[in-house]
Amino acid sequence: MIRSIRALAKKGEIEMVPLDINQVVRDVSALVTRELVSHQVTLRSELASALPRVLGDRIQLQQVIINLVMNGIEAMDAVTDRPRELLIQSSTDDLGYVQLSVTDCGVGIAENDADRVLDPFFTTKSSGLGMGLSICRSIVEVHGGRISVVQKNGPGATFQFALPLHKEAIS
């Protein structure tokens, strides 16, 4: 199953084009509005202006962001003592990558699970298959990037992925 998904991500009909990751985030925000409202979650975006473009498949990158957003929403289902807020941030790093992070204020990830949450079939959800984050990792890697869990202070979890700049954006 994992091999076929990775093959799909590698050889499938993907359309690699120069993309504005902020526009991909805005598209995803519109797609998940209903879920945010039904789960009483506020979405806040802090998108860096004038980000260089990345080379990517819009649909696949939307899938990555949607998965991270939906995981964050689900992680906050049990939260009753604080506002349910999801934060999406974009930026560039010193290594020439565009970064995108999704932060929730949910239950968080146990320290001993942080290294395994991106592995196939590992899940902390009672009804989860453990495929979502693994597929996200495959998609990000096909795009020449990396995805990670960022340890944060306070409740919740942050997932971050970084994609290389589109070559024309560098010159």
Describe it for me?
- It is a single chain.
- This protein has 171 residues and is α+β, with helices and mostly antiparallel strands.
- It has one domain (2-170): Histidine kinase-like ATPase, C-terminal domain (Heat Shock Protein 90), CATH 3.30.565.
- The chain has helices at 2-11, 21-31, 33-38, 58-75, 132-142, 167-170; strands at residues 17-19, 42-47, 54-56, 85-92, 97-103, 146-150, 158-164.
- Helix 4 packs antiparallel against helix 5 (132-142).
- This is histidine kinase.
- Its EC number is 2.7.13.3.
- It comes from Bradyrhizobium japonicum.
- It catalyses: ATP + protein L-histidine = ADP + protein N-phospho-L-histidine.
How are the SSEs ordered, and which strands pair?
Elements: H1 2-11, E1 17-19, H2 21-31, H3 33-38, E2 42-47, E3 54-56, H4 58-75, E4 85-92, E5 97-103, H5 132-142, E6 146-150, E7 158-164, H6 167-170
Parallel strand pairs: 2-4
Antiparallel strand pairs: 1-3, 4-5, 5-7, 6-7
Helix pairs in contact: 1-5, 2-4, 4-5
